């Protein structure tokens, strides 16, 4: 794809599922927050790379609240997709779901917004395709993402 052809949100969608083992636990026996943050960043970067078709770097992580603990033995699924595409930057929404694989019960534990920049072979910002919504919900998500991006830019000044 070239940067002149818009991509849909579905084109960027990534789903990562990982079994949480003892090596993922903190001293309380819950999954360490850093393990979840790493999975969120990996899923987000993959979604951004799918959109940009180039390497990306993480430039920002908006607030990430841990609403529920994730336990050893649960499956963690991270769903990530683009919500905004600028000239070279992209915002990705990542949602984390913890699942008990025995009972099948699922709990939404985290949502985060991350910003990535596409880079070229020299590590310089690289243009990315535009993002095209296909549903009213996607249009609303893109509008909210644009507002977040404007706040980020104002916060840097």
Essential attributes:
157 residues, alpha+beta, Thiol Ester Dehydrase, Chain A, five-stranded antiparallel sheet, two-stranded parallel sheet, 3 helices, 29% helix
Write the layout of secondary structure elements.
Layout: E1 7-8, H1 9-12, E2 14-19, H2 33-52, E3 56-61, E4 75-85, E5 89-99, E6 106-118, E7 131-132, H3 136-156
Parallel strand pairs: 1-7
Antiparallel strand pairs: 2-4, 3-6, 4-5, 5-6
Look up the CATH topology.
Thiol Ester Dehydrase, Chain A
| Average pLDDT metric | 95
Number of strands: 7
Distance between the termini: 34 Å
Poorly predicted spans:
none
What strand order characterises the main sheet?
A: 2-4-5-6-3
Strand content: 25-35%
Output the helix-strand order.
EHEHEEEEEH
Overall radius of gyration: 16 Å
Fraction of residues in H or I helices? 25-40%
Name the CATH class. Alpha Beta
CATH superfamily: Hotdog Thioesterase
CATH architecture tag: Roll
Q: Given the helix and strand composition, which structural class is it?
A: alpha+beta
* Integer count of domains: 1
How can the largest sheet be summarized? 5 strands, antiparallel
Overall, the morphology is: globular
């Amino acid at each position: 794809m070239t940067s002149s052809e818009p991509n849909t949100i579905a084109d960027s969608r990534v789903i990562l599922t990982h079994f949480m083992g003892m090596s993922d636990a903190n001293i309380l026996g819950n999954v360490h927050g850093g393990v979840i943050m790493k999975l969120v960043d990996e899923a987000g970067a993959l979604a951004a790379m799918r959109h940009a078709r180039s390497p990306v770097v993480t430039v920002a992580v908006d607030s990430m609240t841990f609403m529920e603990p994730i336990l050893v033995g649960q499956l963690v699924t991270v769903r990530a997709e683009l919500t905004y595409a600028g000239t070279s930057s992209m915002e990705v929404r990542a949602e984390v779901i913890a699942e008990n694989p025995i009972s099948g019960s699922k709990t939404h534990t985290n949502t985060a917004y991350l910003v990535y920049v596409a880079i070229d072979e020299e590590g310089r910002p690289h243009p990315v395709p535009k993002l095209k919504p296909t549903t009213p919900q996607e249009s609303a998500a893109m509008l909210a993402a644009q507002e977040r991006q404007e706040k980020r830019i104002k916060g840097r000044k």
